[in-house]
Amino acid sequence: MHDKKLSDKEEGLYVDLLQKRSERKRMLTTKIGDINNKLNQEFKNCNLFIKNLPYDLTENKLKEIFSKCGEIKSVKISKYLLVAKVKDQFVEQETSRGFVLFVLLLKKQQIKQKKNLTKKIYMDMKIVKDR
């Protein structure tokens, strides 16, 4: 009887065993946890974290650089200001970090390639800044 339609205009029937609220909550929590774990495992090697990026690097430039390694779903850069106290003076340092989400799973070799590419990007950005 589950999903059976009584008329064309109505949604299908929902039929299930009667459960206490606590049982239903436990079942749904478990189901949601399983789905989240599956998604985490699926995207585990698709998302890269990149730190110590040059502050003036844009998301478009980062996407352009990493697009050589595969199809990119999204790129995000978060920029922040670090304030540290050094010898009774406050020192400000601009820094940023990025996240690159690829469409397909990455193999270990590709991850190493991307790490090397990130080092090269940083050096290239330093050279451009110094000019």
Which key phrases capture this entry?
single chain, 131 residues, alpha+beta, Alpha-Beta Plaits, 2 domains, 3-stranded antiparallel sheet, 3 helices, disordered C terminus
- The domain tally reads 2
Mean pLDDT: 76
Q: How many individual β-strands?
A: 3
Q: Helix coverage percent of residues?
A: 40-55%
Strand order, largest beta sheet: 1-3-2
CATH top-level class of the largest domain: Alpha Beta
Structural class: alpha+beta
- Low-confidence stretches are 127-131
Strand composition percent: 25-35%
Described by strand count, sense and barrel closure, the largest sheet is: 3 strands, antiparallel
Tally the helices: what do you get? 3
Alpha carbon gap, first and last residue: 73 Å
Q: Architecture of the largest domain, CATH level 2?
A: 2-Layer Sandwich
Q: Any idea of the CATH topology of the largest domain?
A: Alpha-Beta Plaits
Q: Please compute the radius of gyration using only Cα atoms.
A: 24 Å
Shape: elongated
